[in-house]
Design goal:
Length: 145
């Protein structure tokens, strides 16, 4: 990827911006729920919407590979601002795919692969239904009815 120029910002400005997004996520109860293990299963649509964006897929893969990272660390890998990365992380958090944990002035994010479980089950059920439909169509076509 081409390197992009970033506006100079102070550490305090970066921390304040990340804190603002983290607080917005926390107000919705998403970060605390995810960290505390409150595992209300997400609708498959929420997960699919979150994964529809290539930047969010990249962030999730990066978190899965690294273990944990801050929004600033993740932004270094992408041609978008740190604030944009944190907003993407908030979408992933709402879908149950990542969790944020405040450590001092930073928010460290971690991937939550169990967030994919309900969607994977739904997709397996859907695939089984379609396999049955296709077997039925084949049977009808071969019987000449």
């Amino acid at each position: 990827m081409a390197e992009r120029a970033r506006p100079e910002r102070s550490v305090a400005e970066d921390a304040a911006a990340e804190e603002g997004v983290a607080e917005a996520v926390a107000e919705e109860g998403v970060a605390e729920e995810a960290v505390a293990g409150g595992d209300a299963e997400r609708e498959p649509g929420e997960v699919l919407v979150a994964l529809a964006d290539p930047t969010r897929r990249h962030l999730l893969a990066e978190l899965a590979a690294r273990g944990t990272a801050t929004g600033t660390e993740l932004a270094e890998q992408l041609p978008v601002s740190r604030q944009a990365v944190v907003k993407h992380l908030a979408v992933l958090s709402r879908a149950g795919l990542v969790a944020g944990q405040r450590e001092g002035r930073e928010v460290r994010y971690v991937a939550r692969p169990e967030g994919l479980a309900a969607t994977a089950r739904w997709m397996a059920e859907l695939a089984a239904e379609w396999d049955q439909r296709l077997r039925d169509i084949k049977r009808i076509a071969e019987s000449g009815d």
